[in-house]
Amino acid sequence: MTRPRTRRRLQAAGAAAAMAAATLTAAAPAQAAHHACTTPQLAAGWYGDNQARLQQLIDRYGSCNPHRPGSDKPVAVFDWDNTVVKNDVGDATMFWLLRNGKIRRPADWKTTSRYLTPAAAQALATACDPLARPGSPLPTGTPEGAACADEINAVYGTAATRTGAPAFTGWDHRTIEPAYAWLPQLLQGWTPGQVRSFAAAARTENLAAPVGAEQRVGTGTATGWVRYYDQQRDLIKNLQSAGFDVWISSASPQPVVEVWAQGAGVAADHVIGIRNTTRDGKLTAHLQGCGSVADGADTMITYVDGKRCWINQEVFGVRGAAAEKVRPAARRQVFAAGDSDTDVTFLRDATALRLVVNRNKNELMCRAYDNSDGKWIVNPMFIQPKKQKTTPYPCSTTGYTDHDGTPAPVRRADTSVVPDQTDTVY
User: Fold this and answer.
1) Spatial distance between the Cα atoms of 78 and 153, rounded to a whole number of angstroms
2) Do 264 and 297 meet the contact criterion of CB atoms below 8 Å apart?
3) Checking phi first, is residue 159 left (phi over 0); if not, alpha (psi -120 to 50) or beta?
4) Which domain holds residue 187?
5) Does residue 293 share a domain with residue 204?
6) Are residues 191 and 213 in the same domain?
7) I want to staple 356 with a disulfide (CB 3.0 to 4.6 A). Which of 82, 104, 368, 373 is the partner?
């Protein structure tokens, strides 16, 4: 027979056990939910402590951190050419167009760029106009079209004619590069879908070609291969998995970058390239505008300060002249990655971390090595890295290029001059 006191003890113990079981049962979903959120981990292959710095970014701003700043998705923006891939997909496309005769002859070459000089327009007309009627593709992939291919390639690749005359004049060096813009302008007459098919064909060829391969373009040779950087694809994938909103900003044509970006897991609606205006579904030789710049003005592409405008407009929904200005920190990307002076402005706008792939570009490397706010990290190129620059970057004298093309000192936000910097990451 159980004594009353013993029975009460047993009843109390049973109640406590039941309460503990209930507590464990209630806690289980929370614990399961906690364990279900796993912060992505970056793969190896980075220079110095860059992997750790990037991982800290993911840990702090990723969706598994309940204390991450802000409620919106953190934004990350990557340049494309020589940042996510080795070599230039715009170049790859231009070379494919010339080899396959896909550039349509304009009625007047001066209409292909507001910045084209009379000397360049005449050189192009002389080399190309006898080969086709206006609006028809030029046979630049044939022996008889080789001189035309050479002239187009010279203007595009060197901003000069084959005889060395300047091909472009009068542009704002902080908002547009006429040679970059000329490629999408030469795509006039094709639909965006057709351009994507050209880019896909070029992509297949360049990925299949061995590293270091060259191809025949006109009477000369050009780079014939492209590779994705495994580390950058892994970074993009892990940022996306951690809840970042990942975008591409490139000074290659919009349909071209859309095709290539798919290979890094970035959808077309998160690509900002140079964008043509269209007429009857076909591309024109004019470009879409940004900020206070109207469509067809052809003065503001995804280039230096133009990248800020396009990111503010397309990512953050800012319209009008305000898109050209620095936005409040909460309305900017937390992370940015680039490789060239063309990327300086949108990299500076990043609030948490800025990744620079070192290609020995003066203004960019001056700012990255100066690292005045501790948010810059530098990585050598992942394939065929450049050797150490043997002389300091001329930050204190000519590292900056002003709007009119005049060289000037590189200045910090407080206007102090950045001293010359030694190349240390290579």
Assistant:
1) 27
2) no
3) left
4) 89-223
5) no
6) yes
7) 368
Residue 191 within any structural domain of the chain: yes
Is position 251 within any domain?
A: yes
Tokens of 104: 């349509």
Q: Is residue 203 included in any domain, yes or no? A: yes
Q: For 267, what's the count of Cα atoms within 13 Å in the CB-facing half-sphere?
A: 3
Q: What is the 3-state secondary structure (H, E, C) of 231-283?
A: HHHHHHHHHHHCCCEEEEEEEEEHHHHHHHHHHHCCCHHHEEEECEEEECCEE
Reference 356, options 62, 53, 91; nearest CA is 53
Do residues 55 and 97 share a domain? no
Count up the domains in the chain and report the number.
2
Residue where a domain terminates, one of 335, 352, 378: 378
Give the predicted TM-score (pTM) of the model: 0.91
CA angle 68, 73, 75 (to 5 degrees): 105
Task: Give domain status of residue 374, yes or no.
Answer: yes
Check if the beta carbon of residue 282 is closer than 8 Å to that of residue 109. no
User: How far is Cα 77 from Cα 243, in angstroms, rounded to an integer?
Assistant: 14
pLDDT tens string, the chain, 426 residues long: the values are 444 443 444 344 444 444 334 333 333 333 344 457 999 999 999 999 999 999 999 999 999 998 888 879 999 999 999 999 999 999 999 999 999 999 999 999 999 999 999 999 999 999 999 999 999 999 999 999 999 999 999 999 999 999 999 999 999 999 999 999 999 999 999 999 999 999 999 999 999 999 999 999 999 999 999 999 999 999 999 999 999 999 999 999 999 999 999 999 999 999 999 999 999 999 999 999 999 999 999 999 999 999 999 999 999 999 999 999 999 999 999 999 999 999 999 999 999 999 999 999 999 999 999 999 999 999 999 999 999 999 999 999 999 999 999 999 999 999 999 999 999 999
- Kindly state whether residues 233 and 371 are assigned to the same domain: yes
Domain co-membership, 83 together with 98: no
**Pair (308, 167) in one structural domain:** no
Q: 149 with 141: CB under 8 angstroms?
A: yes
